[in-house]
Write a structure and sequence with these properties.
The complex is a heterotrimer of chains A (117), B (473) and C (102). By secondary structure, chain A is an all-alpha fold. Chain A is flat, with a radius of gyration of 27 Å. Chain B has 473 residues and is an all-alpha fold. Chain B is 75% helix and 1% strand. Chain B has 21 helices and two strands. In chain B, β1 and β2 form a beta hairpin. Chain B is globular. Chain C has a single domain, classed as Helix Hairpins. Helices cover 76% and strands 0% of the residues of chain C. Chain C is elongated. The N and C termini of chain C lie far apart (54 Å). At the B-C interface, α7, α8 and α11 of B face α1, α2 and α3 of C.
Chain lengths: 117, 473, 102
C-alpha cells in the first residue's frame, strides 16, 4: 500500500468517525431548550454588561507597540544560532538593527505613547 | 563582511542622515519649533542638490543592491518631486489639527522615499519586497493623516488593505518564480528562466501585484477613492512619486528578470495599457471633483508610462524616465494650484470652484492651463515631447496599432483637460468660486519651478540625450 | 512521505480562501484576517519550495522570516488605521465606509 493510499484511508476513517459520532449524538440525545442554555459561558457567573464594551484606546497602543517589538525578535533568532561563527560583523549589524528599533521606541516614549493617562 | 559595500548606498545614507537630523531635532527641540519647516525644506533641498554629485556604480551585498548612473538619476528625480511636494504643504501643515504633528509628516515621507530608493536599486526580490513595504506602509499612515476627517480615515483603510493585498499577490507570484528557478537574485533568475507554466503563473501574479501599485486598469478601483480622501499634498505625492517609483521598479524587474521572455509580458502590457488609457480617459470625463478627476487622469498617464516599458530596449527606458520627469512637473503644477484653491475654499475640491479662476487669480489659472496642456500633450509644452518619445519607443519595437490607439486616446484626453481650462477661462464666477488667493512663499517657489519645468524640459534636448546616455550603459 | 504537491495544494487553497474572504467579508478585522491567510499561504510556498526543491540553500526560509516580520508591521499599521476609522465612523463594517464613491 502506498503512502498516499494510506493517507486516504486515514482521511476517510477520520471523516467517517466524526460524522458518525455527530449523527449518533443527534439521534440519541434528548432535546430540551431554555433561555439559560443560550447564555454565553463566562466562568459560571452571569454575564455583566454588554460583551461589546469598549476598552481604553491605550490598550491598543501598547498592543501595537508590543506586536512590532515582539515579532522583530524573529529576525534575531537566526543571528543568535550562528552568533559564534560570524563574530564581530554580525554583532555590529544586529546592534544596528536593534538601534533602529530603539529609535522607534524613543519616538513613542517622547511623544507620550507609553504614558497611561 | 565588507563594509565598503555601503559606499554604493550614498543616496540612502544621505537620506538616512537627513532623517536622523530631523528626528533628533524633533524629539530634542522645544515644543514651539517654528524653525522646523524651513529646516526641513532647506536640508532636503541641500540633499537633493548633493544627490547629483553622488555617482555610485556597482553591486553591493552580493548583488542584492544595484547602483548605476541610471538608478542615481531616478533617485534624484524622485528627490526633486518630493521636494516640490514638501514646498506645497506649508498651508496644510499650518492647520490647527495638523500643526502639532507636522514633523511626523516629514519623517514619514522621508522613510517612504527610502523605501522607493530600495525598490529602484533592488537586485533581488527580497530587496524589492522590503522596499515596497517600506514605501507603502508609511504611505498608508500619510493617507490617513487628517485623522479627524472621516474621508481621510476611509481612504487610509482602503489604501492599507489594497496595498497589503497587492504585495501579497506579488509575493505569491515571486514564490512560484522561486520554485521554478531556485533563486531570488534578478541576474541568476534571468539565466534560469523559461516559459514553463510555473514561470508564467508567477509572472502574472507578480505583474498583478505591481499593477495595483501603478493603478493599471483592472487593479485601479482603489485609486479614485484614495486620491479623493487623502490630504491634497499626499495625493500629489501618491500620484507622482509613488507611481514613478513603482514604474521604475516594474521596468527594472521586467527588463532584468524577464528580458529573455519578452514576448509573454509584452502581450500583457499591450492589453493593460490599452484598457488603462481608454478607461482612465472615459471615467475622467464624468468627474465633478477635481481630485477624482486627477486620479483618473493619473490612471491614464500610468497607461502611457507602461507604453514605454513595452519596448524592452534602451529607448524604452529613456522614454519612460523622461515621461516621468515631465509628469512630475506637469502634475505637481496642477496639485500646487489645487491645494491653493482648496485651502482658500475650506476643503472644497469640486471643479465648480475653478469657475472664473482666470479673473480672480490669473497667475494660478495660467499655471493650471499650462499644466493640463502639458498633461494632454499639446505641442511645444514638455508633455508633447514626452508623449512623442513614448510613442517612438513603442513604435521602434513594432507596436504600431498600440501607438495608434494611444494617439486616439490623446485626443479624448485633450477634451477633458480642456474642460478645466473652460471652467477657468470661459465660465462665469459664481458663489462657489474662489476669491483672490495669496499664496505662501514656499508654494510660490514650487509653482515657479514647475512653470519653468513645463516650458523648458521638453525644449532642451540635452536632457533626453543625457538620459539616453545613462540608459545605454 | 509528504509530497511537495500537498503543500502547494494547501497554500493555493489558503490563498484563494483569503482572496474570497477579502472580497466578501464585511468587517474590516475579518478582511485583515483574510489578508493574513493570503500572506501565510505565500510563506508556506516559500518554505515548501526551499525544503523540497533547493535543500542546499536557505533563501526561501529567510524570505519567510522577513515576510512574517513585515506582515506584523503591516498588521500593526492597519489596526491603528482601523481604530482611527472606528472612532470616526463608529463601526468597522466596510459597507459604512461609503463617503467616497462616484
Amino acid at each position: 500500500m502506498t503512502n498516499s493510499a494510506l493517507f486516504l484511508v486515514v482521511l476517510v476513517t477520520a471523516v467517517f468517525m466524526v460524522v458518525a459520532a455527530m449523527a449518533l449524538a443527534m439521534w440519541l440525545s434528548p432535546k430540551s431548550y431554555n433561555a439559560l442554555k443560550g447564555e454565553p459561558y463566562e466562568c459560571g457567573i452571569e454575564t455583566r454588561g454588554p460583551s461589546w464594551g469598549q476598552f481604553r484606546v491605550g490598550y491598543y497602543l501598547i498592543a501595537i507597540l508590543f506586536l512590532i517589538f515582539d515579532v522583530e525578535a524573529v529576525l534575531l533568532f537566526p543571528w543568535a544560532t550562528i552568533y559564534s561563527s560570524i563574530g564581530l560583523d554580525g554583532l555590529i549589524l544586529a546592534s544596528f538593527f536593534i538601534f533602529v528599533l530603539l529609535l522607534g521606541l524613543i519616538y513613542a516614549w517622547k511623544k507620550g505613547a507609553l504614558e497611561w493617562k | 563582511m565588507n563594509f565598503s559595500n555601503f559606499l554604493f548606498m550614498q543616496h540612502e545614507i544621505g537620506l538616512v542622515a537627513v532623517f536622523l537630523i530631523l528626528f533628533f531635532a524633533d524629539i530634542l527641540g522645544s515644543n514651539d519649533k517654528k524653525w522646523f519647516y524651513p529646516l526641513a525644506s532647506i536640508l532636503f533641498a541641500a540633499f537633493t542638490v548633493a544627490g547629483f554629485f553622488f555617482n555610485p556604480q556597482g553591486e553591493a551585498f552580493g548583488g542584492m543592491f544595484v547602483a548605476s548612473p541610471l538608478t542615481s538619476f531616478m533617485k534624484n528625480l524622485l528627490n526633486i518631486a518630493t521636494f516640490l511636494v514638501f514646498l506645497q504643504t506649508y498651508r496644510w501643515l499650518e492647520q490647527k489639527e495638523i500643526k502639532e504633528r507636522r514633523f511626523e509628516y516629514f519623517l514619514i515621507s522621508l522613510i517612504t522615499l527610502l523605501g522607493m530608493y530600495l525598490m529602484i536599486s533592488a537586485g533581488n526580490f527580497m530587496m524589492l519586497y522590503i522596499g515596497m513595504e517600506t514605501a507603502s506602509l508609511p504611505l498608508a499612515t500619510l493617507v490617513a493623516f487628517n485623522k479627524h476627517q472621516r474621508k481621510s480615515a476611509e481612504a487610509g483603510v482602503k489604501f492599507i488593505m489594497i496595498s497589503a493585498l497587492a504585495s501579497a499577490v506579488m509575493l505569491f507570484g515571486v514564490s512560484y518564480l522561486y520554485g521554478a528557478t531556485g533563486t531570488f537574485y534578478f541576474s541568476d533568475m534571468a539565466a534560469n528562466i523559461s516559459t514553463s507554466p510555473m514561470v508564467l503563473l508567477g509572472l502574472v501574479f507578480f505583474f498583478g501585484g505591481l499593477g495595483f501599485k501603478l493603478s493599471l486598469v483592472p487593479f485601479h478601483l482603489w485609486t479614485a477613492d484614495v486620491y479623493e480622501g487623502a490630504p491634497t499634498s499626499i495625493t500629489a505625492y501618491l500620484s507622482v512619486v509613488s507611481k514613478g517609483a513603482a514604474a521604475f521598479a516594474l521596468l527594472f524587474a521586467l527588463f532584468k528578470v524577464f528580458g529573455n521572455i519578452e514576448g509573454v509580458w509584452q502581450g500583457i502590457v499591450w492589453g493593460l495599457s490599452v484598457i488603462t488609457i481608454t478607461l482612465g480617459n472615459l471615467f475622467a470625463l464624468r468627474q465633478t471633483d477635481i481630485k477624482r478627476f486627477f486620479a483618473f487622469s493619473s490612471i491614464s498617464q500610468a497607461g502611457y508610462i507602461v507604453l514605454g516599458i513595452i519596448a524592452n530596449n534602451s529607448m524604452g527606458i529613456t522614454a519612460t524616465v523622461f515621461y516621468v520627469l515631465v509628469y512630475v512637473f506637469s502634475n505637481l503644477a496642477s496639485f500646487a494650484v489645487i491645494s491653493a484653491v482648496e485651502n482658500k475654499n475650506g476643503g472644497d475640491t469640486s471643479i465648480a470652484a475653478f469657475n472664473g479662476l482666470s479673473k480672480s487669480n490669473p497667475k494660478l489659472a495660467l499655471l493650471m492651463m499650462l499644466s493640463v496642456f502639458s498633461l494632454g500633450g499639446i505641442p511645444f509644452f514638455a508633455g508633447f515631447f514626452s508623449k512623442f518619445f513614448i510613442f517612438m519607443a513603442a513604435a521602434s519595437a513594432g507596436f504600431y496599432l498600440l501607438v495608434f490607439i494611444a494617439l486616439l486616446n490623446t485626443v479624448i484626453s485633450l477634451f477633458y483637460y480642456l474642460m478645466i481650462v473652460k471652467a477657468m477661462y470661459i465660465n462665469k464666477a459664481d458663489e462657489t468660486s474662489v476669491t483672490p488667493i495669496k499664496s505662501d512663499n514656499y508654494s510660490r517657489i514650487s509653482m515657479v519651478i514647475c512653470f519653468v519645468g513645463i516650458l523648458v524640459v521638453g525644449v532642451i534636448s540635452g536632457i533626453y540625450t543625457y538620459i539616453n546616455g545613462l540608459a545605454m550603459l | 512521505m509528504i509530497k511537495l504537491e500537498y503543500y502547494l495544494i494547501v497554500s493555493t487553497l489558503m490563498f484563494f480562501i483569503g482572496i474570497f474572504g477579502f472580497i466578501t467579508r464585511k468587517s474590516m478585522i475579518a478582511i485583515l484576517i483574510s489578508l493574513e491567510l493570503v500572506l501565510n499561504a505565500v510563506e508556506i510556498n516559500f518554505a515548501a519550495f526551499n525544503r523540497y526543491l533547493f535543500p542546499e540553500q536557505m533563501e526561501g526560509m529567510f524570505f519567510t522570516i522577513f515576510g512574517i516580520a513585515i506582515t506584523a508591521a503591516e498588521t500593526a499599521v492597519a489596526l491603528a488605521i482601523i481604530i482611527n476609522a472606528y472612532r470616526l465612523i463608529g463601526d468597522i463594517n466596510i459597507n459604512d465606509a461609503t463617503k467616497l464613491k462616484g
